[in-house]
Sequence to fold (285 residues):
Amino acid sequence: MNLNTLKTAFLLGLLTLLFIFIGGLLGGRTGMMLAFIFALGMNFISYWFSDKIVLAMYRAKEVTETEAPMLYSIVRRLTQKAGMPMPKVYIIDNPTPNAFATGRNPNHAAVAVTTGILNLLNEDELEGVLGHELAHIYGRDILISTIAASVASAVMLLADWARWAFIFGGFRSDDDENAGGAIGAFIAMLIAPIAAILIQMAISRSREYLADERGAKLSGKPLALASALEKIAYGVQAVPMNANPATAHMFIMNPLRGKSILSLFSTHPPIEERIKRLRKLAYGG
Fold:
């Protein structure tokens, strides 16, 4: 099993333990389950309809092979090589170079690229990028991110309920030792949502590394993907995209990426590390 796959499994397990811990602090198994079911319901809707929502959000236009022959040719070649169904292909009229994949499984998938990335990259680089996006579809990353979002949302709901219970006397005690324990629990409840977000982002970063590796192997052009990432990183800085932060994790490069954003809170790994790993892969390191 790939190291990044193991890391993803570990982080999902850690997120689940955090959920159980906060549920225990709240003291109600029923409340814990209600929070989880509510979060699961919200993310279930997102899982089934997020592709249509995000494509509409960025006014993506579905294109035919006649309209975008080179783009279609690359996607078809890669999907045939991977043994995957042909996804729908979209173009977003935006000068920022970027791309993303969406869809709940390989049979209901789409890849979208901006006009900016089509104008910036050569054919080999574009193939590397599309290999990365198809790797997301093949790896069912939409499902994984939905599970992570469900558990993280439930943790945040429970922590919020627990804080209100504390404020309104749910943890009140005349015993100094118990009072100290209640204060410790309250601090844990404040920290838990931040921890949940950090774990969720770490899962996203692990999937990006995995998609880079799988996409590079699928296209057979890791150096072309590395070159594409360099160009896209520069392009995103030069021409930022007016993107919804909730969708930032979907793009091959964070469209909100900036020097002021702490890497700890980034949905994507550092570009330098991604390029380093791709070059290492290319040279058999």
